[in-house]
Every structure is written in structure tokens, then in C-alpha cells.
Specification:
With about 250 residues, this protein is mainly α. The protein has a single domain (about 5-245), classed as Ferritin, CATH 1.20.1260.10. The chain is about 65% helix and about 0% strand.
């Protein structure tokens, strides 16, 4: 088994699954029906991306495991998602800001991953990139609407930015799997992603009249399996049926 290819694929799959699960919590609770549906559709897109990646990761691992095994039968310390995606939804502004910080990575990531020397990753990226173009436009537009809207909406999304900013850099901080993937041609150079992402983030935040926090501190550890307490609660919901009734099928 190519361990670094497995871990690299798993990192992205876990990011998509956990954020998709978080967005799914909004189903039926959105501020207006249109945005409720939008968040649910984005959640489904992310879970669809996770499924493709888990299917490939299971094949790489070659231990007769399925995508369901990787999603439902691993413990929190086996997950490699970044800490950003497991943060609580909070209010609508916090959910939007978290989504934008992720989309500003996910969109250019898939765009560059389409050039992967690994044909399977390239194919997954080509399909997923089309979806992330909409995700980034949607979350970016909402950052602008909230930041440059009413005093309350501005304050809420500024508070969200202050809270989530220390989690924003981990996603472009290379893990061992990221470094190996770039070196061997099946992954992307995160330094290129970081530059493009920072430009997009600053462009949108400036137009939204938001102030970027003056803090150099960054929370890290998710890619190595070190998570916040929130991931355990997410997995308790996500994995309950499979763990309560192991092996059962619809």
C-alpha cells in the first residue's frame, strides 16, 4: 500500500465529510428557505466528493474495506481533517465564514489536482472542481452581503472572522502526505494554493469592509489526528447507526 497516497486521499475525504455533516445540521433550520436548500445542496456535494475519495482510499488500502468502513468505523484520532471544518455552526454568519475559508482552498485545490499524475485523483478533481466554483461564489457573495450589510450583520461576521481566523492556515500547512504528494506528482503544491487563496480571501474581506485579525497564531494538528472535542460529537451522530447495528444494510 502507498501510505502517503492513502493519507493524502483520506485528508481531503475527511475534510469534505465532516464539513458536509456540519452543513447538514442546518437542514430545516436555515434563515430562509432558499439558503436552507443551498446549504443542504452544498453538503450533498461535499459528501459526494468524500464518497469518491473514500472509495479510492479503500482500494489503495486493499484490505477489503469499503467507503462505509472508512467513514463509520474509524475513531476520531484516525481522522485527518483540518480543525476548521469541525468547528460548530454557530449563527449563519459563522457558518458562512467557515464555508468561505474552506471554499477558498477547495476550489483552487481541485483545479490544480486535475493535473495529478494519478488518473483517479485527476478524474475526481475534474468532477469536484465544477461544484466548488459554485460553492466559492455562494459563500463569497454572502460574506460580502453580511459584511457590507446592516450593523448587526457586519458585527456578526466580523466576530466569526475573529473566532475562525486562527483555524484558517492549517489547510495550507503541508503534512508529510502533502509534501510527498507534491514531490511525486500526484498532489499539488500547497504554497501555490496558499498564495492564490490569500489573494482571494483579502479581496473579498476588504470589499466586505471586514478587518483581518492581527494574529499570527494558528491551530494545527488535525492532519495528524489531533482534534478538538467537537469531532467526537460529530462522529457520535454520524456513526451511531453503524456502530449500534454493525453490518446492517438498508
Amino acid at each position: 500500500m502507498n501510505q502517503n497516497l492513502f493519507n493524502y486521499t483520506l485528508q481531503q475525504a475527511d475534510n469534505c465529510l465532516i464539513l458536509g455533516q456540519r452543513l447538514g445540521e442546518w437542514c430545516g433550520h436555515g434563515p430562509v428557505l432558499e439558503q436552507d436548500i443551498a446549504m443542504t445542496n452544498i453538503a450533498l456535494d461535499l459528501i459526494g466528493q468524500a464518497r469518491m475519495l473514500y472509495q479510492y482510499a479503500a482500494e489503495i488500502q486493499d484490505e477489503k474495506r469499503s467507503e462505509d468502513d472508512l467513514a463509520y468505523l474509524r475513531d476520531a484520532w484516525d481522522f485527518k481533517n483540518v480543525l476548521l471544518v469541525e468547528q460548530p455552526n454557530g449563527d449563519f454568519a459563522k457558518t458562512i465564514l467557515r464555508q468561505f475559508l474552506f471554499d477558498s482552498f477547495n476550489c483552487p485545490f481541485y483545479e490544480k489536482l486535475k493535473e495529478s499524475s494519478d488518473e483517479r485523483l485527476a478524474a475526481i478533481a475534474a468532477k469536484s472542481h465544477k461544484e466548488t466554483l459554485y460553492h466559492l461564489k455562494w459563500s463569497g457573495d454572502w460574506v460580502l452581503r453580511l459584511g457590507d450589510g446592516t450593523e448587526e450583520s457586519h458585527n456578526r461576521i466580523q466576530n466569526a472572522l475573529n473566532e475562525l481566523w486562527p483555524y484558517s492556515e492549517e489547510i495550507t500547512t503541508p503534512s508529510e502526505a502533502d509534501i510527498d504528494a507534491n514531490k511525486n506528482g500526484f498532489g499539488v503544491n500547497l504554497n501555490d494554493i496558499k498564495s492564490e487563496r490569500e489573494t482571494k480571501i483579502r479581496e473579498v474581506l476588504n470589499e466586505a469592509t471586514l478587518t483581518i485579525p492581527d494574529s499570527a497564531y494558528n491551530h494545527t494538528g488535525g492532519k495528524e489526528g489531533k482534534h478538538t472535542e467537537y469531532l467526537g460529537y460529530i462522529l457520535a451522530d454520524l456513526q451511531f447507526l453503524q456502530r449500534a447495528y454493525p453490518g446492517n444494510e438498508w
